[in-house]
What we know:
The protein is of the alpha/beta class. The protein has 11 helices and 11 strands. The chain has helices at 58-62, 84-88, 103-111, 114-120, 135-147, 162-169, 184-191, 196-207, 226-238, 253-259, 274-286; strands at 2-11, 19-24, 45-48, 94-97, 99-101, 123-128, 152-156, 174-178, 212-218, 243-248, 290-293. The strands form 2 sheets. It has a 9-stranded mixed sheet with strand order 5-1-2-6-7-8-9-10-11. Strand 1 and strand 2 (19-24) form a beta hairpin. The chain starts with a strand and ends with a strand.
Amino acid sequence: xxxxxxxxxYSVHDGPGIRTxxxxxxxxxxxxxxxxxxxxxxxxxxxxxxxxxxxxxxCTAVCLAEPPAGPREPWPVSCERCGRCVTVCPTDxxxxxxxxxxxxxxxxxxERDRLHFEQxxxxxxxxxxxxxxxxxxxxxxxxxxxxxxxxTAVDTxxxxxxxxxxxxxxxxxxxxxxxxxxxxxxxxxxxxxxxALILRxxxxxxxxxxxxWLRVPxxxxxxxxxxxxxxxGRLARGLGIARIHLLPYHAAAAxxxxxxxxxxxxxxxxxxxxDHLQGLAGPLRDLGLDVHLGG
Length: 295
């Protein structure tokens, strides 16, 4: 069993070809720009969209704990995250980020997209949150996909025990390895953890000959300085990584923060322009790297 918060089919930004991306719940990092902030907690996170509420009171009728003060009120503090109100809500005004699934059932679901995978050279991408935060579930999915002949990619921060990373490297076909910042102190300030373990695991993956696409967030004023990108490029070249993706910051998380009543304030930034991204890509290409803008 494992916990996921979303599945996106027909994705073209999470690895080669057409892919089905499974987003696993839970993440040890606390990135200031995270566009899936509801994925950080390990348990389900409740959300409420008042504009969708019909005041039908079905949610209060089925609540096993203290029901909301009214049908248009958000989740009570005593909420047990059972999801009964989500099930009966006719307009999806109430939702939970995070649901438990059986690996075998999920594999059966993923196999339904086999035709799209085979025609496009695609497959399954396991993302998050942080997929390495659910070791047994992740390994079961990877082993199941390999047994069924489905290509797999793991989208990860790399923040996990080396033993787990080595085990995943035996099963995953591709690593989409996120490197937030090359400097340890700056990485800690932006994400809550330094990058020492992450860099060791990145080197471990490469020593095992795994294919890696390095993914770097471009966040205005935080990670988009030319010197920072140049250092990342030299690191990639030193590890024999040929492909790097510059992922532009976007403000999609703003609405989620309000809906999920998350404490983090988030960032009030404008996404980088195409010209700025191209300017950052130039020196990386001069290093001989295959640079892509976006996923």
